[in-house]
């Protein structure tokens, strides 16, 4: 029997699995970590203390728990937060903490500079939409402008999965999909570096080599074997970002499949048969050969719920400490009894700015329609509905571009909230499915590792492996009740954009 190891590093936790030849998870493990917020709009993590340390912890835990001998691990796959920027020196040592994905909005001036440098028409051609805070090229330019000594010493600008692969194999690689999706316009679709486009940003030699996600890019080194418990010489695939790996884990394998990742933030992948260019979202070649993806992401999901838990539902945290009850399960109690639209309450959930479809880091949250009859559970339900309205906005965009979204394949920790999942299905008017194996991206990593060594012939084989757990069918009556609130939700941002921008300048 052969086994496949998959490990994913997320915003607040890292997860790992071992799968057998049938795709069954034989061991799983989770470890938690933090995210640093040193200044407003700045979000960072320590690549060694968080990313690599978590990988080593989980690898050893999985081997110990399962009793699987290291030599039985046929291949390793890894993923991390998607569009991160980590400069490393010639020995691969991080020169600063990693600047995280689109939630980090420090590079607004660099975004504006690149937009002017290329010009509006060329930006549309190169990016397919306005330059956003998720573009690593703008993050690299921020380091060049604000930390010139770090920039001067940088041997490679990596993203999270590239760093894990380097620590495992000593190779600097990035999957071709992530290179196109997050490092625009620095890579060609085949993974080669677009030298001309590098000129205002970095030197071509400062970028990792592009390879397909399931390519065996190297093997576990002697030092990595010592730190992870794996066997020296174990094959390692290129790996990818967490959201793409999670899309694979829930069965986004062909055009029309849509994943919504309910994590700390929300991320969307819709598989397409052609390149979609719409400035509200991001179109790229997908990691599955001969397909494309439409990607999108919000800043507000689990992170926003965590804020509500800490600020309004401290008694739920206390119950978790004293009685062992799950704080989030306690917080959701009673909200299903509130009618759709939260009795006339709407929340714009842009507490951390917003990525798609707004692409506005200066957007801010709003709670509109408050009356003395509203309770904190109304506030919480309204926040969940606000995120649901955002999901529906994205589905509308996909359909406007001719993508027939018929189901949502849901992933991430948010899928444990059955009330919320039904709410999203009702708002969007689309069936929502959750997978049997719900550990997410780590499962996708293991499945792709199996493809990498030829155990599965390709991605299509995974349809026989990935199984569904729950199907939430939309209640059409509730869907109709939500329609006027959804319309008001869309109008609230448009009508208050300037006010929100003014207020954002006063945020500490």
From TrEMBL:
SUPFAM superfamilies noted in UniProt: Actin-like ATPase domain (SSF53067)
Record-level Gene Ontology MF annotations: kinase activity; phosphotransferase activity, alcohol group as acceptor
GO biological process: carbohydrate metabolic process
Keyword rRNA processing: no
Domain (Carbohydrate kinase FGGY N-terminal): residue spans on this chain: 3-247
PROSITE patterns: FGGY_KINASES_2 (PS00445)
Record key words, sorted: Kinase, Transferase
Domain Carbohydrate kinase FGGY C-terminal: 264-451
InterPro entries, sorted: ATPase_NBD (IPR043129), Carb_kinase_FGGY (IPR000577), Carb_kinase_FGGY_CS (IPR018483), FGGY_C (IPR018485), FGGY_Carb_Kinase (IPR050406), FGGY_N (IPR018484)
Pfam families noted in UniProt: FGGY_C, FGGY_N
Family named by the database record: Belongs to the FGGY kinase family.
Protein name, per record: Carbohydrate kinase
Organism: Clostridium fessum
């Amino acid at each position: 029997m052969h086994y496949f190891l998959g490990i994913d590093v997320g915003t607040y936790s890292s997860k790992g699995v071992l799968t057998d030849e049938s795709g069954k998870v034989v061991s799983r493990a989770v470890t938690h970590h933090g995210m640093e917020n040193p200044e407003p709009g700045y979000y960072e993590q320590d690549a060694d203390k968080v990313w690599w340390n978590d990988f080593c912890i989980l690898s050893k835990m999985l081997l110990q728990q399962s009793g699987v001998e290291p030599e039985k691990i046929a291949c390793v796959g890894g993923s991390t937060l998607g569009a991160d920027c980590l400069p490393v020196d010639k020995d691969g040592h991080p020169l600063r903490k990693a600047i995280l994905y689109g939630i980090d909005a420090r590079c607004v001036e660099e975004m504006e500079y690149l937009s002017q440098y290329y010009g509006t028409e060329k930006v549309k051609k190169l990016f397919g939409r306005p330059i956003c805070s998720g573009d690593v090229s703008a993050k690299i330019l921020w380091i060049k402008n604000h930390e010139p000594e770090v920039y001067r010493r940088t041997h490679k600008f990596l993203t999270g999965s590239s760093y894990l692969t380097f620590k495992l194999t000593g190779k600097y690689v990035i999957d071709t999909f992530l290179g196109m999706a997050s490092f625009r316009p620095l890579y060609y679709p085949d993974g080669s570096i677009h030298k001309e486009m590098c000129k205002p940003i970095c030197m071509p030699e400062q970028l990792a080599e592009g390879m397909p996600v399931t390519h065996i890019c190297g093997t576990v080194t002697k030092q990595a074997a010592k730190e992870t418990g794996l066997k020296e010489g174990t094959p390692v695939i290129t790996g990818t970002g967490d959201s793409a790996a999670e899309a694979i884990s829930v069965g986004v394998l062909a055009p029309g499949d849509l994943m919504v990742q309910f994590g700390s933030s929300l991320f969307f992948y819709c598989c397409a048969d052609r390149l979609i260019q719409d400035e509200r979202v991001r179109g790229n070649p997908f990691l599955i050969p001969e397909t494309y993806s439409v990607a999108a992401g919000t800043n507000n999901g689990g992170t926003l719920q965590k804020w509500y838990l800490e600020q309004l539902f401290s008694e739920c945290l206390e119950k978790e400490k004293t009685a062992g009850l799950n704080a989030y399960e306690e917080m959701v109690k009673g909200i299903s009894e509130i009618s759709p639209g939260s009795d006339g309450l709407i929340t714009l959930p842009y507490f951390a700015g917003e990525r798609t479809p707004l692409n506005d880091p200066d957007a801010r949250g709003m709670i509109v329609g408050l009356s003395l009859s509203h309770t904190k559970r109304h506030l919480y339900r309204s926040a969940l509905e606000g995120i649901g309205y955002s999901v529906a906005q994205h589905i509308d965009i996909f359909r406007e571009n001719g993508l027939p979204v018929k189901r949502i394949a849901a992933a991430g920790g948010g899928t444990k909230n059955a009330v919320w999942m039904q709410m999203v299905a009702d708002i969007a008017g689309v069936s929502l499915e959750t997978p049997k194996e719900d550990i997410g991206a780590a499962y996708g990593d293991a499945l792709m590792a199996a493809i990498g060594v030829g155990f599965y012939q390709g991605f299509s084989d995974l349809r026989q492996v990935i199984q569904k757990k729950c199907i939430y069918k939309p209640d059409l009556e509730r869907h109709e009740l939500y329609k006027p609130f959804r319309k008001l939700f869309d109008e609230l941002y448009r009508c208050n954009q300037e006010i929100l921008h003014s207020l954002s300048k006063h945020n500490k």
